[in-house]
């Protein structure tokens, strides 16, 4: 059990925490104070609760482009509440500026976060993140570090306008790229729209992974109420930042450590919200990773059952029509949580020191809006994500059914196989590719170890010759992930992945595959004997590396059902499942 500040001796608070080892505690404090006084601090300032503020600003990360304003507001909030703010940097990751893929670096960022929270003296921490991998990395790191922690989201970007049509990253990025590939727009218009898709700093403006994780962070109780939805460049976002700083000081005083918030009930609430917002499939992987740090396992089959009773209520792209700024105008998570209230674990504690139920009751009254649907008038009658099983995915696979094509969700087709991302790039647009719209595209070796880092390459493009003929969707299967901003009949996270010898490794072009979302089935229609024969004749060589982070990654990364976390970072003991017992 984590000790609270009340349990600790005064020497373990504020600047006195975690003294550097010189063999003489008093000297260590003397030295620390001498150095910090070099920055002009007084003893009065240094005697206050210390609130760390994680600065993930980076020229490489426009999703965090409002970082200076947010830090200033958090500091104001901390000082108004009598604390001492101390901002410090950690790794920052942006989706488009991380090679080979941002997911490869998420665990590194979580380690950086955890170790800097442990190493530096602070009584609570405000974690500022927004772009897809940053919020999960921070929650994972803070969950392991164990001190009072509160999440501040950077906020979504504004939408732009192209030829009077409203556009936003990144659903519309994919849509316009699809038009360009299909020859519907020319190179000049492609370049024009490129200027308009991202209208300001901030995170993607649809229900992609960043927005999903923002909503999940609030559902987990890790942000102040209303913390998920204000766009990055608004006064509301700055007010949330100030409030977050103020709240962090009280959390430090109350000893409101993260283990009191990240409980099985909190994760169950997050799963409900993930389903009801039509959230990114990546949300499952990140939730599994964060829960794993707390010794909890996400039960994928239970998530599937929860989907039967949790409709999609949020009308946001890619499942619906609106953008994050509309969700904010509609009351944000407050409106959504009010609709979901009968399904939520209302006793779950939040960073405010009050339960989720108390926060919902204390929220301002509802008003007329058309972004969050009433529970009995959903935009999709079931949860957005279905969990599939079968001989092709013994450990499970998922499909975002709310963004899939109804007709293709019950489909048997011939496999057209690509061995890896390079093979895909080389052949997908070849006029000679033997493919029809009824075929099923299969991509191997883009799982956790395969690529490595489980890139968002599961959104396999429609072959050029079919796209030009007007084909908009096909069944696509891989062991990779897909951006939350993408749509289509796409089976993802096939587990175990092909690179470790999962059945996906042995699929051959011409095999028949059955997808039945109704039956929750993904099956390769060959005999067990034939599958075993192929495995024996062509055993896979599991990827490895000689040195460095890549070696650490390939030696220790887990599969999608365990969150693609490193095995040694997960809690040593599993203490329960999510959802827990009724
Ligand atoms: Fe950062 Fe989409 S690229 S949130």
What characteristics describe this protein?
Glucose Oxidase, domain 1; binds FE2/S2 (inorganic) cluster; four-stranded parallel β-sheet; 582 residues; 13% strand; 19 helices; alpha/beta; eight-stranded mixed β-sheet; 3 domains
Overview in brief:
With 582 residues, the protein is an alpha/beta fold.
Number of domains: 3
Summarize the biggest pleated sheet. Answer: 8 strands, mixed
Q: What do the pLDDT scores average to? A: 95
Bound molecules: FE2/S2 (inorganic) cluster
As laid out across the biggest beta sheet, the strand order is 8-9-13-12-11-10-14-15
Number of helices: 19
Beta percentage is: 5-15%
Number of strands: 16
Q: What structural class do the secondary elements suggest?
A: alpha/beta
Measured as a percent range, the helix fraction is 25-40%
Give the overall form: globular
Write down the Rg.
Answer: 24 Å
Unreliable spans are 1-11
Q: How many angstroms separate the termini?
A: 24 Å
